[in-house]
Amino acid sequence: MAAKRYELNEAQWSKISSLLPGKTGDAGRTAADNRLFVNGCLWVLRSGAHWCDLPERYGKWKTVHRRFSRWCHAGVWERVFAALTADRDNQYLMIDSTIVRAHQQAASGKGGPGIRRWGAPEVD
């Protein structure tokens, strides 16, 4: 079965599944739905929708959001991203303008007479 929009395919899932908590042998509860949970997170993050608009097939949105937040605080996502960026065969690593931020003063418009470069009036 092909992956649905915004969901991980088999190759992508196999790269991160061993990095996620909830495996047999890990402390605590064994997660039976890690893939469904990750796909739900990706759906929200890639679609730009609110958490409350998460489709029901991924579970209750509050539960998914709470687990997403716990994984953020536990550093799970950082470990996954670190492993993916260390992989030289990663074809999907890219940086675009949504990641690179400019200083707020870089957005100021063109100045006219009596206006200095940073938008403050000249003092004589």
Summarize the structure in words.
The protein is built from 4 helices and no strands. It is an all-alpha fold and 124 residues long. It has a domain at 12-18 and 32-99. The longest helix has 14 residues, at 34-47. The radius of gyration is 21 Å and the shape is globular. It starts with 9 loop residues before the first helix and ends in a 38-residue tail after the last helix. This is Transposase. Residues 8-81 form the Insertion element IS402-like domain. It holds the Pfam family DUF4096.
Keywords:
single chain; 124 residues; mainly alpha; 37% helix; Transposase; IS402-like_dom
In short, what is this structure?
It comes from Nitrobacter winogradskyi (strain ATCC 25391 / DSM 10237 / CIP 104748 / NCIMB 11846 / Nb-255). The protein is mainly alpha-helical and 124 residues long. It contains four helices and no strands.
Protein topology:
Layout: H1 10-16, H2 34-47, H3 61-74, H4 76-86
- Classify the beta-strand content into a percent band: under 5%
Helix content: 25-40%
Q: What is the average of the pLDDT values?
A: 79
> Which consecutive residue ranges, at least 5 long each, have pLDDT under 50?
none
Summed up, the helix count is: 4
Largest sheet: none
Rounded radius of gyration (Å): 21 Å
Order of helices and strands: HHHH
Structural class: mainly alpha
Q: Tell me the span between the first and last alpha carbons.
A: 73 Å
For the secondary structure, the number of strands is: 0
Gross morphology: globular
InterPro entries: IS402-like_dom, Transposase_6_like
Domain Insertion element IS402-like: 8-81
Protein name: Transposase
